[in-house]
Write a structure and sequence with these properties.
about 325 residues, alpha/beta, Quinone Oxidoreductase, Chain A, domain 1, Rossmann fold, 2 domains, seven-stranded mixed beta sheet, six-stranded parallel beta sheet, about 25% strand, globular
């Protein structure tokens, strides 16, 4: 253990992509655990699009990160020493570690989830973490997907989207179409993950391709990107189709307010439904989803992949990968 804690703190609000001015590296003393607390050494950071939204000074489901505060984010850490039976030295735990080398765990807001033995850090952060939970409850609870449905997923080669498509097939969707940004990603979706088709939005006419792959319309669209692709899918909804609003990564770096979708009125014509959600609303139900996901992993029906970046200082670049399309699967920073 070193005698200092490296911390990536928010230096200024970003305009557009995160750059060298947005965050700075600071050294501070290693935190001292108090009664009922444990000292953690952070090993892996979970890089998620929502971190970028927390950097902006605007209302959200969590308060913005303050200037000078450690960048908020989930991670996996090792318990070094502990004053509580909840965490034992050597345990791996998952929770809001922040972008830093050391953190504290305790009760209440500081609570962490102990990672069960045999679960890899990648699986813990991806399938059993926020991404897997978002995919599971977004598709099955918010979207109420029915057997035989035609499902379209944007951001399909990312952590959440790749799991959404696989769960849809496991749960009996008739057709699952992913939208991704390269031929290689599209091939991965169909050849490795079992998607029925994939659309390369950078090189194909998305509207035309979706009409070809979904001739009867889209029963459920799982939206991770917003923008033009959301508008296209709204225009191709089947009768009583559903749109699940999970994220809008196409707009997170915009410096102007995004425009509303032009095809919104199609929800009226098709008697459709569009609903957003925040996965924190499902915290108490995580164990049930994790149990079912574990079964699918064990029998080989569910696959996951991680894009690992080395070094705390690389966390800002790792975050930008989510918006440039430079990743396949879950982005993780290994400290």
């Amino acid at each position: 253990m070193t005698d200092h804690n490296r911390r990536m703190v928010l230096a200024e609000r970003p305009r557009g992509m995160v750059d060298e001015k947005t965050v700075r590296l600071e050294l501070s003393p290693v935190p001292e655990p108090g009664p009922g607390q444990a000292l953690l050494r952070v090993r892996y950071l979970s890089i998620d699009p929502t971190i970028r939204t927390w950097m902006d000074d605007r209302p959200g489901y969590l308060p913005p990160i303050g200037i000078g505060e450690v960048v908020r984010g989930g991670g996996i850490a090792e318990v070094l020493n502990s004053d509580t039976e909840a965490y034992r030295p050597g345990d791996l735990v998952f929770g809001m570690t922040g972008w830093q080398d050391y953190a504290l765990a305790g009760a209440g807001a500081e609570a962490m989830q102990v990672v069960p033995p045999g679960i890899s850090p990648g699986a813990a952060l991806n399938v059993f973490g926020v991404n897997g939970m978002t995919a599971y409850y977004g598709l099955l609870d918010v979207g109420a997907m029915q057997q035989g449905a035609t499902v379209v997923v944007s951001g399909a080669a990312g952590a959440t989207g790749s799991i959404v498509g696989q769960i849809a097939k496991i749960k009996g969707a008739d057709r699952v179409v992913g939208i991704a940004g390269t031929p290689e990603k599209c091939a991965w979706l169909t050849d490795e993950l079992g998607f029925d088709a994939a659309v390369d939005y950078r090189h194909e006419d998305v509207a035309k391709a979706l009409r070809r792959h979904c001739p009867q319309g889209i029963d459920l669209y799982f939206d991770n990107v917003g923008g033009d692709i959301l508008d296209i899918c709204l225009g191709q909804l089947a009768m009583r189709g559903t749109v699940v609003l999970c994220g809008a990564i196409s707009a997170y770096n915009d410096t102007e307010a995004p425009k509303g979708p032009a095809n919104l009125l199609n929800l009226i014509i098709k008697r459709g439904r569009m609903e957003g959600f925040i996965i924190l609303d499902y915290l108490e139900r995580f164990p049930a989803a994790q149990l079912e996901l574990a079964g699918w992993l064990a029998d080989g029906r569910l696959r996951h992949v991680e894009h690992v970046v080395a070094g705390l200082e690389q966390a800002p670049d790792a975050l930008n990968l989510l918006f440039t399309g430079g990743n396949t699967g879950k982005v993780i920073v290994e400290l």
